[in-house]
Amino acid sequence: MENKMKASAFLLLLCVILGSFGICKAGGQIKEVVEKLCQNLGIVGKLGIGNEDHAKGLKMDYYEESCPQVEGIVRNITWSKVANNSTLAAKLLRIHYHDCFVRGCDASLLLDSTSNNTAEKEASPNRALTGYEVIDEIKSKLEKECPNTVSCADIVALVARDAVSYQFQRPIWKVPTGRKDGRVSLASEVLPSLPSPFADFPTLLQNFENHSLGINDLVTLSGAHTLGRTHCTLIAKRLYNFTGKGDTDPSLDSDYAETLKTICPVPINPATTLEMDPGSSLSFDSHYYMALNQNKTLFLSDSALLTNPQAAALAKDLQNFDDFLEHFKVSINKMGAIGVLTDGKGGEIRRTAELSILKSSWF
Ligand code: HEM
């Protein structure tokens, strides 16, 4: 018993020392062993060890010495673009998500296809993505100001934050940086990595868990659908042929279904789009959760959130904007850390957003 107490005291001391020197965040085997021990002692949160585990080597002000103007440049260009075209906020946020869920946040989404490789950009879920030109413009400016320093992956993460934040005229979440750019981009990896809008709850959760995200992140990040538009083609089945008998999905509010049918009449025009959060699709707010709780969201993957009690309870709470924002700050940072290539983990600083400097030797 006495020995056990001594061992615990030693471990506690070890955790405090390593924690205060930041060694627990340094990566590698020592970190893993110590974190496990610290977790066993139940002191993980108190020391801050593990709290930033999802940051996986990213840090605030990574470019403080090498390119202090990076955040200003990204914000100025992004804000001027969004000021001219408010639909860009949705597009740039979605680019960040589609980048991170496929091969991690490594800007692999931006790479162009080559004669013998079809890149992520060309996979069906990515074909409707636009807004890449904003990232290209920022990358060119940064290459002039701080050549070979700022990764495209960091630019994508910063741009998403700034595009959404324009509405508030202040950054609404923090973006730790230090990502490197990947060199591989495969269209074949996109569909298996991104959840389908027809997915049920267990499938969605499994997909998020595959990306080290949980129920809270699933519910919170789905709130990004407060911004933007979709196509009638993606909701036609719910409206006109839900079970193959010409019926409408009963989980969709029936009056709303009738409204949607007037926006998306048969024959479905593949070019017709509609707001995902009616009346406020240009505003980052918590209306998505209000619509969700009234059975007025467009995708099965949205309404599926109500089929799990824990997710449904959170979806109720997140109708409050302050609560949504607090959750979103955490979950978007976890998303922004998926599979990141940080110092010592490979990757490169790409010279232009679309081209890997090593591309010719890789494909
Ligand atoms: C939970 C799983 C998700 C599914 C099944 C899903 C699916 C979709 C689909 C099908 C569209 C419409 C595409 C189109 O009509 O062209 C869409 C749009 C969008 N998604 Fe998601 N998404 C999910 C999660 C996310 C996440 C995590 C984010 C960001 C953090 C996000 C951000 C957006 C945005 C902003 C749009 C609107 C884009 C625009 O207006 O151009 N989505 N999503």
In the predicted model, the low-confidence regions spanning at least 5 consecutive residues are: 1-53, 358-363
Which strand-content bin applies to the residues? under 5%
How many domains comprise the coordinates? Answer: 3
CATH class of the largest domain: Mainly Alpha
Summarize the main sheet: 2 strands, antiparallel
Radius of gyration: 22 Å
The computed structural class is mainly alpha
What ligands can be seen in this structure?
Answer: protoporphyrin IX containing FE
How are the strands of the largest sheet arranged? 1-2
| β-strand number | 2
Query: Looking at the structure, what is the overall shape?
Result: globular
CATH architecture of the largest domain: Orthogonal Bundle
Distinct helical segment count = 17
Helicity, as a percent range: 40-55%
Tell me, rounded to a whole number, the average pLDDT: 86
Reading the helices and strands in chain order gives: HHHHHHHHHHEHHEHHHHH
CATH topology of the largest domain: Peroxidase, domain 1
Task: Report the span from N to C terminus.
Answer: 61 Å
Task: Please give a structural write-up.
The chain has helices spanning 2-20, 28-40, 44-47, 70-84, 88-101, 132-145, 152-165, 190-193, 201-210, 215-222, 236-240, 254-263, 287-293, 300-303, 309-317, 321-335, 359-362, and strands at 229-231, 273-275. It has 363 residues and is an all-alpha fold. It has three domains: 2-51, no CATH class; 70-193 and 343-362, Peroxidase, domain 1 (Orthogonal Bundle); 201-335, Peroxidase, domain 2, CATH 1.10.420. A two-stranded antiparallel sheet has the order 1-2. Helix 4 runs antiparallel to helix 6 and helix 10 crosses helix 16. The longest helix has 19 residues, at 2-20. The chain starts with a helix and ends with a helix. Bound molecules: protoporphyrin IX containing FE. The site of protoporphyrin IX containing FE has 22 residues, from helix 5, helix 10 and strand 1.
